[in-house]
Amino acid sequence: MTKRQTRKQQQRHQQRTQRQAERQGHDQHTDLPAPQESGDTVLHVAGASPYDVVVGHGLSERLPAVLGESVERVAVLYAGTLGELADPVVDALVEHYDVLALGLPDGERAKTAPVASDCWEALGEAGFTRSDAVVTIGGGATTDLGGFVAATWLRGVRVVHVPTTLLAMVDAAVGGKTGINTGSGKNLVGSFHEPAGVLCDLALLESLPRAELVAGLGEVVKCGFIADPAILDVVERTDPADLTWDSDELRELVERAIRVKVDVVVDDLRETGGAGGHPGREVLNYGHTLAHAIERTSDYAVRHGEAVAIGCVYVAELAARAGSLDPALVERHRATLSRVGLPTTYDAASFDDLHAAMRIDKKARGSQLRFVVLDDLATPRILAGPGEDDLRAAYAAIASAG
């Protein structure tokens, strides 16, 4: 269930009129501004619905520029345990809009049909129209659920993501995929709905538990293997203890990982396939087929980034057995991921249970499993219908700690 709270700024209409008068003659363009002296980095996402991803510190003040003057009401969907972390964002909004704050359950418990329905009912009761907007504050589950609510309310309203975890910054908040889980699997219900903007405020990572920061590095390292080996170089030369919210190294990793995703999404938003044999957007699923199976069979006790790390080693082993990947690169998967504290082995479920879960993954085609594998660094392809013997052997390799 969601927790509802309505905040209204006194004399909102008078203040709106005053702001409009003050801005007469100025550019009313609602895109995020270009980088300024603050040092913020602006990454533009081109396409049919272009938007910007901003990486920096103290980005709340940018929200009104992204949302625009036509918006009157903003629903803020936030992870319920954020507490005071969400307050600066809400405070920045109540100066300009009527704000409906909706607290969500934590983690994957937010990504359910009943929670989405609660949000729809709250929007209806508050009279939200197509000119109003949604802002999400939280991790990947919050951006997934909030994006889905925005995509489905009145067939689509504006949404701006303010991710508060490393995982959400480099993955869930960028790219326009939204979704909820069902009893059968993860993200099986959803839609494509690109945000109006994404604000990656690195200062929000200061209070993030170390285990969550490390988990987010699973998606970062994945991007290094599939597209940008410079990410691996940064990880391998940096003391893991120095990868902190305020470090230059972490900022470089965040920006590089976002660039990887942006480049892929611009070319293949709806995952229909890339050119020249490239998997297109499907490349971002590297390691995810097993990862989603691990998450489901563990009832989401394993963090997404941790499961992705295990899944990346699994598909590396699978590619080696298919004869396409050098064993040295398989070992580099293990070494790089384990260096930052991510798991590279898993034996908490049987192969048969995981295999059954993989078969209902949304990347499967009919009865055929599909995996993104590598022929070399940044050289991905699709491996369709691998033999069960190879699937079992690859799992045996990651189930062993040796």
Automatic annotation (TrEMBL):
According to the UniProt record, what class of enzyme is this?
lyase
Name the predominant localization: cytoplasm
Gene3D superfamilies of this UniProt entry? Answer: 3.40.50.1970, Dehydroquinate synthase-like - alpha domain (1.20.1090.10)
Co-factor(s): Co(2+); Zn(2+); NAD(+)
Which residues are NAD(+)-binding?
106-111, 140-144, 164-165, 177, 186
- Catalysed reaction, written as an equation: 7-phospho-2-dehydro-3-deoxy-D-arabino-heptonate = 3-dehydroquinate + phosphate
Record keyword Ribonucleoprotein present: no
Tell me the cofactor note.
Binds 1 divalent metal cation per subunit. Can use either Co(2+) or Zn(2+).
Positions of the 3-dehydroquinate synthase C-terminal domain:
216-364
Q: Where is this region: Disordered?
A: 1-39
Keywords attached to this Swiss-Prot or TrEMBL record, sorted alphabetically, are: Amino-acid biosynthesis, Aromatic amino acid biosynthesis, Cobalt, Cytoplasm, Lyase, Metal-binding, NAD, Nucleotide-binding, Zinc
Composition skew (Basic and acidic residues), residue ranges: 19-30
Q: Where in the cell is it found?
A: Cytoplasm
Q: This chain belongs to which protein, by name?
A: 3-dehydroquinate synthase
